[in-house]
Each structure stands twice: as structure tokens, then as C-alpha cells.
Design goal:
about 350 residues; alpha/beta; four-stranded parallel beta sheet; extended
Length: about 350
């Protein structure tokens, strides 16, 4: 204690002002140190923990004093909306103006945006055909990514029903109100759907539907993993894009976890066997091996496109889907059938998963 006090005294007095010998001669150490020790022993918490330090010892046990908060440099850009130029109220734009607007401002889906300069400028559609601004006719093989399966000529009954609903009310939020047509459609779906499929959610897109299916499977089972095929596409939102197996999954697979890829029953570079029956058997055996290796207790669902579309319209062998259903039953795993691409044709036939063994 004496050395510590000597050090403090010398610092306080400054070098050369008083020597240690002089302090001892004057008895300062003998009198000051005991008094300060006694004072510290009986000091209150407030005296020992002060903003400026222990009483009598500046900066000793002092509380942290933060630096003054620096003033943020606010952005100086003018982010107010501007007035729309008069040309936007003119419907008659030249193709040159349209093309320039597209090149300058339009972003394409799943592609670099540079090709927008040369892709056809579609002006109208009729039946299964599309027509560009030069009058060239195109056969729409993909129904615009399977979004207009009825074709481009909308039936009068559909237009009439849409007009009537818009006149009544264009939108009702499902959480606070019920539109009569929603209840009627849900009842119709329950009556024509196979097995015990009787509850329906009406999202705005296939990706949103698959996202809901993934969340429901995980909540219901308490398990995390979702099996998906390598050659598949399930949607552009984060969850379904991670479930996707084709090249598009690379845009998100590091951001969403719990998705496990499995081989399709119709691979490109090899064959499971020489006949469809044996190939189906081997593909299911491979899937079961993977289920066991991953751990059935960790797998919430196996999610499949009944017929993959963008992967190449891969029709599975007879018995494959039923076999997947059987494996799901065996290992207590849910089965999600992503049939967005097949919805119109298979609604007519009461869904692609119409076999009763797929609807548990």
C-alpha cells in the first residue's frame, strides 16, 4: 500500500518537487496513507464508484464517459416524386419509344436484361397464338409459363363474371372478411377433390402456394427437412427457390436451409434399369436409402412436381408416385404434390394425384 501511495504522491506533485526522503522526513507517508486507507475502508458505494473516480483519487474506478454522439450526415439527394411527363397520358407510343423504355427500365426474369432490346414486342393474343407489332404469328407452346392454359381468347362467361365481381367489390382481405365466391369455390373444390382433401388456401401464385405448403409441413410435423428433386422448379420466392433443383436454386440456396435434393426417376446421364418397372423400383430404392441416411425423424415432407415442367416435361414411370406415397406412409413423412403446371388439365380429370393412394 505504501508504494502505491508513494507513486500517487509523486505523480500528483510532479517530478523534482519533493523527494521520497523529504516525504519520509516530514512524516507525510506515515500520516496520509493510514488516513486514506481508513477513509476508503469506511467509504460508501457512492464514494467508491463515482463518475469522476474514487473520492481523492481522480479517474480511479471512474465510470465510462462516452464520447458525444456524432451528428449523422443526412442524405442530400432529392427523393421526392416527380410529376409524370405528358407523354405518359398518350397511349400511342411508337415502337422505338417502347423499345427504348424497355431497354432503359425493364428487368427480365431469370435472365440478363440485355436481350429485351431484341425480344418480340407482343401486341395481342388469340387462341393459342400471339402476334407481335409486325404482325408475326407465334404458337404459344408454353401458355406463357403455364399461366394461360385456356388460351389468349378469354371466354365471354369469364369476362362477365370478372366484370360483375369488380362492380360488387374488387378485393376482400381474407383475414377480416369473407367473399361469397371464396366460400363457394372452396366448397366446389372439396366436392370434386379426391380422398379427404377438403381444406383450401387461395394464394396469388404457385411460389406462394408452395411456400405455404412448406411452412405447414414443418409446423405440423415439427421437423425441418424437405426433399426435392434435382430437376424441378417450385417458385421464385426464397423458400420455393431453395426447394427448386434446377440452376435457379443457386440464387438462394445459401440463404434458406433444410432442403435436401434427391434424384429424379428419369435421369439424363444414366438409366436406373432397362425397363420402366425395374427403373421405378431402383429409383424408389435409392430414395428409401436416402431417407434412412438422412433420418426419417428429421424429414417433414417429400415435395414433388407430378410432372416437372421447366426441367423437361419428365413423366415418371407408372407406379413411381404411388411408391413415393408408400414410403411417406412407412416413415411418417408428408407428401406435397406441386401440380401448378398441370392444374387445368388435371382439374378436369380431378387432379394428377387422383389415385386414392396419393391423398392420405
Amino acid at each position: 500500500g505504501g508504494l502505491i501511495h508513494c507513486h500517487i504522491v509523486r505523480v500528483a506533485l510532479g517530478p523534482g518537487q519533493l523527494s521520497m526522503k523529504a516525504l519520509r522526513t516530514h512524516g507525510c507517508l506515515q500520516t496520509c496513507a493510514p488516513l486514506r486507507l481508513a477513509r476508503r475502508a469506511t467509504a460508501s458505494y457512492q464514494a467508491l464508484s463515482r463518475t469522476d473516480g474514487v473520492e481523492g483519487y481522480p479517474n480511479v474506478n471512474a465510470r465510462y464517459k462516452h464520447e458525444p454522439r456524432k451528428k449523422l450526415a443526412l442524405p442530400t439527394e432529392d427523393n421526392r416524386l416527380r410529376s409524370a411527363p405528358p407523354r405518359h397520358w398518350n397511349r400511342d407510343w411508337s415502337e422505338t419509344e417502347l423499345r427504348k423504355a424497355a431497354v432503359d427500365h425493364v428487368m427480365l426474369t431469370w435472365s440478363a436484361s440485355a436481350p429485351v432490346e431484341h425480344i418480340p414486342m407482343i401486341e395481342r393474343g388469340e387462341g393459342v397464338y400471339l402476334y407481335d407489332t409486325n404482325g408475326k404469328q407465334y404458337l404459344d407452346w408454353t401458355s406463357q409459363a403455364v399461366c394461360v392454359n385456356l388460351g389468349h381468347t378469354m371466354p365471354e362467361s369469364v369476362k362477365k363474371a370478372m366484370d360483375e365481381q369488380i362492380e360488387k367489390t374488387p378485393f376482400v382481405y381474407g383475414g377480416i372478411g369473407l367473399a361469397p365466391v371464396r366460400a363457394q369455390l372452396a366448397a366446389l373444390m372439396a366436392e370434386i377433390s379426391p380422398g379427404d382433401l377438403n381444406g383450401f388456401l387461395f394464394p396469388s401464385s404457385g411460389g406462394e402456394a408452395n411456400d405455404a405448403a412448406i411452412r405447414l409441413a414443418r409446423l405440423y410435423t415439427g421437423k425441418q427437412k424437405i426433399f426435392n428433386q434435382y430437376r424441378s422448379y417450385h417458385g421464385g420466392t426464397l423458400g420455393p427457390l431453395s426447394a427448386t433443383g434446377d440452376f435457379r436454386r443457386h440464387f438462394s440456396q445459401n440463404h434458406a436451409t433444410g432442403f435436401v435434393k434427391m434424384f429424379n426417376p428419369e435421369p439424363h446421364l444414366f438409366r436406373w434399369a432397362d425397363t420402366d418397372e425395374l427403373a421405378c423400383e431402383m429409383a424408389l430404392a435409392c430414395l428409401e436409402e436416402q431417407i434412412v441416411a438422412e433420418g426419417p425423424a428429421t424429414i417433414a415432407a417429400i415435395m414433388l412436381e407430378s410432372i416437372p415442367g421447366s426441367a423437361g416435361v419428365l413423366v415418371p414411370a407408372v407406379g413411381y408416385m404411388e411408391g413415393v406415397r408408400a414410403l411417406c406412409d412407412k416413415y411418417d413423412i408428408l407428401m406435397i404434390c406441386d401440380e401448378v403446371r398441370c392444374r387445368v388439365c388435371w382439374m378436369i380429370q380431378q387432379f394428377g394425384a387422383r389415385h386414392k393412394t396419393l391423398t392420405h
